[in-house]
Write a structure and sequence with these properties.
Length: 266
Amino acid sequence: MSQIKIVIAGPRGNMGKEAVKMVEKVTDFELLAVVDSRNNGKMVRDLEGLPPLEVPVYEQMEECLQKHQPDVLIDLTNPKFGRKHMEAAFKFGVSPVVGTTGFTDQDLLELDAIAKSQKIGAIIAPNFAIGAILMMKFAQTAAKYMPDVEIIERHHDRKLDAPSGTAIKTAQLISEVREKKNQGHPEEREELAGARGADYEGMKIHSVRQPGLVAHQEVVFGSVGQTLTIRHDSINRESFMPGIELAVRAVKNIESLVYGLEHLMD
């Protein structure tokens, strides 16, 4: 079995720490290096909360990719660096697997064009939890029959974006099978601005940010005399690792940008 050679960006974050542990455990994965915003020249063993690995730390993505020539870059940083890291990966023929949200539609179009022109696979996933992907798929099915829907997403209070990428992706999938529909009383008014949440083609999206949470979402459907709630909870960040492993294995078999893990699941 040939080894899949990997570089991880963002190893000190909560997701990054779990990804380092996952790559170390999977027998045909090999961690070559990590890219961090500081700690250049150190080893992974020197970083708090990480396994005692003799794996080098770099601050500059291009330097790292040039020296180690991995097959896959796992990027778990933030929107500020996500696109730059993807462009660097394309430059060196490396397939990026990205867990950063906040990309614009224009970003996705431009990154997809680069991937196709170079025939390099890339995956951006708003959520790597397999259960969350199933939640989105089930919600899309339900929306065909119950078009009145609201989304409530709850995340830890360190999350930068609202609504979450998962909530937006859920709304986009639902919109593929649901006609635009204004919900609630036609003359309703907000006594406090934002009380009804964000609006996506008539669907309302509500964001909660609290310490103690990880990642949680429920999609609530209403109809005459009944409601249906589809809910997913990530109790810890280890829940995202099977999805990252799936993406790493799949990315070398595609030649374009795939946005959303659901496209890799039958």
